[in-house]
């Protein structure tokens, strides 16, 4: 027998509209404008009809809107599957469900859909503001659930308080699940279809203007935590893609052998851990030059023959990787002639004036070390300018740069220097990565941002191997010694960074960065390795998934038993008037009178007029005071109740 549907109370609809609003509103930042417009119009229409007296929409209208919405999503995303299309479908279904609300069952569907939509926000962002929004949204959705099953006429404050209590009761179980549930590699929301989407950062090619564009972004590229003091700023070169092929306009990275070059470490080592943001590429960006690579089986780090440190798989989620590096070293002393010859390649017939200048220097003195200093001297003596906004270059880009514009960013100077060296028969290559970093005094992490992106050069010298040469330092020494902000002339824009004079705002940014880092390390970065580290401190060394499931089941069982004991444990009376009345009942029971707990004070007083006349008057006086204390707007003082209690025999 089919039970009749329970009609939806009129007071429940505002809660369901709030559920739809808080769960779909943030998706407006990522989904097409037309879908947000459709959802917004439906929400406004349902709100207006509720105000006028809610009625269910016609069936043909709902069917038409669903088919039109699905067709629009199919045209927009070319599919109905995947992350973005799937979220769009959920937003559409949430809006359409509001058009057919007529029973409590429909309302429950909206609430469940709201809980599910909350999870989808982590597909786009996992930062602290998103977490706070989702926490507040969960409170609203739970409040709607409480309103549907509680007293429909209760006020919003009482409903939200009840929802908050429910969430607090779930907090211990949530913490147990977070700590003990077996972790998987990578976030659960990393869908394969979106795993290789592009992100801001370095690429495996470089052309004029490609790195200067990154200087307009203050997004964090990675953080570094050193076991001891970090190296000085001038030695903080973070090695990324090594570019050796030039086509006259663009530098590209060619595939290199996986055989690492010879490395002779000089000076003291630096041991540190990088927290890499997801950049969707293979390079790991260590401090130049690493002598010990990460031992993680997940990353499978390796060093190629040109000194690039890369992982087998692209970095698609935040990773913690440990390195040991030396800022003084000899690299590639025994590189084979074929590798050196590849670093002399130049496109024929391109940039003739640049090639002629280098060959004139070579005729003057063929010594490679002298040629390096001669090129740097040329940059210092001529009217070159370091700028984020250089003029556009023509077909012969390096000729234009060296002899006409003489304005450029680090990629211009590194490219020009390497071309000059190759034209003078000195093996050279371009290295891209990051330079510098700002130490956060709050958590002692070194923060490296996209605006710290940099390009420099390496030349191969007999007896020294590959030697780093930074032509930018010849033009703007402040870039190396003090950072990009102090190196730029005038008031060129710099990615929204805080001016040095605003120290209070800079201190606030340091605290916010430290808070974000803690969130990343202990919430988003709670990887299988971090879980094993935490559990080892609790006495569970190297637990497998079976051990974790057993520990989780035991902990949850104990937590439920503790919760049951707390629920059924008799509590001390918190109402003082009721507590005094219970003491009076105990006294009356001792005199042989039957006083059931369900009987009201005034009813008991009336009954005692015939059963115990000598007690009727003091009991009646106390009963009236108890009722007044509990129900009247101006209750009597508690001292009057205590005096009436003492007057009982």
Task: List key phrases describing it.
alpha+beta; 649 residues; single chain; four-stranded antiparallel sheet; six-stranded antiparallel sheet; 3 domains
How would you sum up this structure, described in words?
By secondary structure, the protein is of the alpha+beta class. The chain folds into three domains: 10-180, no CATH class; 205-487, no CATH class; 576-646, no CATH class. It has 22 helices and 19 strands. Strands 8-11-7-2-17-16 form a six-stranded antiparallel sheet, with no helix packed on it. A four-stranded antiparallel sheet has the order 3-15-18-19, covered by helices on one side. A three-stranded antiparallel sheet has the order 1-5-4, with no helix packed on it.
Write the layout of secondary structure elements.
Layout: H1 13-24, H2 33-52, H3 59-77, H4 83-97, H5 104-120, H6 128-149, H7 156-180, E1 205-206, E2 220-226, E3 237-243, E4 245-246, E5 251-252, E6 263-266, E7 270-276, E8 290-292, E9 302-303, E10 309-310, E11 319-325, E12 328-331, H8 337-342, H9 352-364, H10 368-381, E13 385-386, H11 397-405, E14 407-408, H12 410-423, E15 428-435, E16 438-439, E17 446-449, E18 453-461, E19 465-469, H13 471-475, H14 477-481, H15 484-487, H16 503-524, H17 528-537, H18 545-568, H19 576-590, H20 601-611, H21 613-631, H22 638-646
Parallel strand pairs: 13-14
Antiparallel strand pairs: 1-5, 2-7, 2-17, 3-15, 4-5, 6-12, 7-11, 8-11, 9-10, 15-18, 16-17, 18-19
